[in-house]
Specification:
The chain has two domains: 3-48, Arc Repressor Mutant, subunit A, CATH 1.10.10; 61-142, Lrp/AsnC effector binding domain/regulation of amino acid metabolism (RAM) domain (Alpha-Beta Plaits, 2-Layer Sandwich). The chain is built from five helices and four strands, in the order αααβαββαβ. The chain is α+β, with helices and mostly antiparallel strands.
Length: 157
């Protein structure tokens, strides 16, 4: 499904469920101007076509053990497709790595990592280096506080 296949109802639904996926079909229908059954059909189609990738609960980290957030910038040796694919697969399999960005600039990847403490972060990065010899080096920034955290994607009208 392409951007042009999304009508104004789809766009409004996507905005609403990104803000609160727990809303009932009736509540969504009222806000969008459709019937609850039409909303359910549209949401089903958006899931089946991969527009909606998943629905998650956003957990307050302060109420679940106050983990630390680390921003790691990785530099790789060679940009061979098979080596990059292997590294991406490794990072995708690690629960502590929340986000991975392939970027331009001095780093090749920027990671958002959550860990209970510096020791756990260090252990993860030691494994990353040992399991991925194509990673030349990494630098780390420790988040002292979180001003905003989210995955909201603005949907233009």
């Amino acid at each position: 499904m392409s951007r042009s296949d999304l009508d104004r109802f789809d766009r409004k639904l996507l905005t609403l469920v990104q803000r609160d996926a727990g809303q009932t079909a009736d509540a969504l229908a009222e806000q969008v101007g459709l019937s609850a059954s039409a909303v359910l059909r549209r949401l089903k189609r958006l899931r089946e076509t991969g527009v909606i990738l998943g629905e998650i609960a956003v957990v307050d980290p302060l109420k679940t053990g106050k983990p630390n957030f680390f921003l790691a910038a990785l530099e790789i040796e060679r940009e061979r497709p098979e080596l990059i694919a292997r590294l991406r697969q490794w990072m995708a399999a690690e629960e502590q790595i929340q986000q991975v960005y392939y970027v331009t600039g001095t780093a090749d990847f920027v990671l958002v990592v959550v860990a209970p403490d510096v020791g756990a972060y260090d252990a993860l990065m030691s494994r990353l280096m040992a399991d991925n010899p194509n990673v030349r080096r990494f630098t780390t920034n420790v988040a002292l506080g979180v001003g905003k955290r989210g995955l909201f994607v603005p949907i233009p009208d």
